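Inverse folding, one chain.
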């Protein structure tokens, strides 16, 4: 009998994503929570994540590119709304409208292109307007937003669903910039009194009711990342990663370890080489800073991270504890994504979105809510 090849195991807990969604809903209420599922749901699988969230009532999904919308729309119920944060490139408007996807219009040209399509189709098209409240990344300036607000023929072509903007420092509770951006966003909202505002990302949800608007957009917190820097993370962990040991060895004082001989043993050591490297999304910057874990025992990474492997110090383990095929933890209970990110000098977003395709992905199934009287009758209607 053939067994499956041994590899790293990336466990993605869809039920934990649902738990996080419900927790965010409880804080944001009465504002609904939209799920940000761009970059394949931060690397975790946009289709599976979106379906799990639809099952518990999420109806709004943000992606970055039209391509990403194309990938998830067929898997979602028709009531789900999908928005494209980066907006549309010239020529994409028809496909977007045909799919029933709602573009975020970030500039005057995108607004004009979308309105032109609407006019040619003989009616309004749904759209989201983004204003730049102080990040200088995407969105209309206040002056541009004002010009659009006062251009009746243009406005008449746009069924504006939301006015959105994005916070640059939402994870920093005390940042002055949050207040400046909120004031600018309020000025923009005053230009579109009939359009609800949608402002907060994960961090913004925790900045207080003023920031939450009529809908919030959460990405990282759904996936277990800390929405706010410093302090305890209120979210439930979603991802764990274990990888197998592929070799162990004893080395003498003076032995060099890894590329560049960048680490040199200052004592006799026992080392293990494990099957994950930068090609799997573990940053090279983890070398000499990160660690693997065996239970609660920390096994420091020594020397540089290679493409397919890295080397850890297991000198302090009882001999024979670790051998060929032993799985050690790189992300999990002892090593949350924010701690891994910090050791690598980056953020949890980058760790998640880079986790590679060589790991065996194991999904912990989402929980479907028990059918209520209502959903049963819907089921019957469909039959
Ligand atoms: C990525 C993104 C989000 C989600 O941010 P998180 O910090 O992951 O919650 C929300 N809004 C916009 C415009 C984004 O680009």
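Residues assigned per position:
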């Amino acid at each position: 009998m053939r067994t499956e090849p041994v590899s790293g195991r990336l466990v993605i807990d869809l039920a934990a994503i649902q738990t996080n969604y419900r927790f965010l809903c409880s804080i944001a209420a009465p504002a609904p929570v939209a799920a940000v599922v761009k970059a394949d749901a931060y690397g975790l699988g946009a289709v599976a994540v979106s379906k799990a969230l639809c099952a518990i009532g999420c109806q709004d999904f943000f992606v970055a590119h039209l391509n990403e919308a194309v990938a998830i729309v067929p898997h979602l119920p028709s009531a789900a709304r999908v928005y494209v944060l980066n907006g549309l490139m010239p020529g994409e408007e028809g496909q977007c409208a045909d799919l029933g996807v709602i573009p975020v219009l970030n500039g005057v040209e995108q607004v004009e292109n979308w309105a032109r399509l609407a006019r040619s189709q003989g009616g309004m098209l749904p759209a989201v307007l983004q204003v730049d409240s102080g990040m200088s990344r995407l969105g209309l300036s206040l002056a541009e937003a004002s010009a659009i607000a006062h251009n009746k023929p243009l406005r008449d072509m746009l069924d504006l669903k939301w006015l959105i903007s994005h916070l640059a420092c939402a994870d920093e509770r005390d940042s002055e910039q949050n207040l400046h951006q909120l004031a600018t966003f309020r000025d923009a909202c005053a230009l579109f009194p009939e359009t609800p505002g949608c402002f907060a990302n994960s961090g913004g949800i925790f900045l207080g009711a003023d920031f939450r608007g009529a809908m919030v957009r959460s990405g990282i917190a759904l996936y277990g990342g800390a929405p706010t820097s410093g302090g305890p993370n209120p979210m439930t962990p979603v991802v764990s990663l274990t990888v197998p040991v592929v070799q162990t060895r004893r080395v003498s004082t003076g032995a060099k370890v890894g590329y560049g001989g960048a680490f040199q043993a200052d004592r006799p050591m026992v080392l293990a080489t494990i099957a994950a490297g930068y090609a799997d999304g573990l940053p090279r910057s983890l070398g000499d800073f990160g660690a693997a874990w065996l239970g609660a025992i920390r096994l420091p990474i020594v020397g540089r991270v290679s493409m397919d492997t890295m080397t850890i110090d297991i000198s302090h383990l009882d001999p024979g504890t670790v051998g060929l095929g032993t799985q050690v933890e790189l992300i999990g209970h002892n090593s949350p994504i924010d701690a891994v990110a910090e050791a690598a000098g980056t953020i949890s977003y980058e760790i998640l979105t880079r986790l590679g395709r060589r790991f065996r992905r194991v999904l912990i199934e989402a929980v479907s809510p028990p059918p209520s009287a209502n959903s049963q009758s819907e089921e019957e209607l469909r039959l």
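Residues 373-383 have pLDDT under 50 and may be disordered. The longest helix spans residues 176-191.
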